Amino acid sequence: EDQVTQSPEALRLQEGESSSLNCSYTVSGLRGLFWYRQDPGKGPEFLFTLYSAGEEKEKERLKATLTKKESFLHITAPKPEDSATYLCAGGDTGGFKTIFGAGTRLFVKA
Amino acid sequence: NAGVTQTPKFQVLKTGQSMTLQCAQDMNHEYMSWYRQDPGMGLRLIHYSVGAGITDQGEVPNGYNVSRSTTEDFPLRLLSAAPSQTSVYFCASSKTTGEGTEAFFGQGTRLTVV
Hints:
The complex is a heterodimer of chains A (110) and B (114). Chain A is mainly β and 110 residues long. Chain A contains no helices and 11 strands. Chain A has strands at 3-7, 10-14, 19-26, 32-38, 45-50, 56-59, 62-66, 70-75, 84-91, 98-100, 104-109. In chain A, strands 2, 4, 5, 9, 10 and 11 form a 6-stranded mixed sheet that branches. Chain A has a 5-stranded antiparallel sheet with strand order 1-3-8-7-6, with no helix packed on it. Chain A is globular. Chain B is mainly beta and 114 residues long. Chain B is 0% helix and 57% strand. Chain B is built from no helices and 11 strands. Chain B has strands spanning 4-7, 10-13, 19-25, 31-38, 42-51, 54-57, 64-66, 76-78, 87-97, 100-105, 109-113. In chain B, the strands form 2 sheets. In chain B, strands 2, 4, 5, 6, 9, 10 and 11 form a 7-stranded mixed sheet that branches. Chain B is globular and about 45 Å long. Chain A binds chain B through residues 4, 32, 34, 36, 41-46, 49, 51, 87, 89, 93-103, and chain B through 4, 31-33, 35, 40-45, 48, 50, 58-59, 90, 92, 94, 96, 100-108.
């Protein structure tokens, strides 16, 4: 059964305290691993797509990496405005037929 | 640039009523999809479309219908609302370029069925 599991469910950090979020997946025919950010009451906001093991992408304080079984979202020196739920999803090349994890809620305290 | 627009933002239905959730995008994307988001379960795919006139079922299609007569619009119809359909519904459109795939989501429709 295709599945995407995120851990931890929630993460509380102090401002400047770097950490990583985990996404493990078993998706047959996986063509892309997607990361999104979701703020309360809003739709998910696209962050990254990773396609092959060893691939890395960066955006500001965020870096996403991919292995054959897992993806990590590394957050370096987070700020309070990084507080959000981060969603991971595995899917096909088009990105529209995807399986989402339940998300990691990140709280960054000043 | 409006992106993906969903209407209404909030809706309360009585059990058995029908309604249509509207979704429109102005980015000329071929791919569009509908998800529902329930607490602790993440987003689940209801239906998707790879272009005008082409739709297919996702993970949880029962009780929902879709059509895609134009590239811009992808409405989701609830045939006979049930309390189990209480959820937040998101519409998305996506494009694939040489850089990869990027998806854009609407702001969501919060539906309550009583």
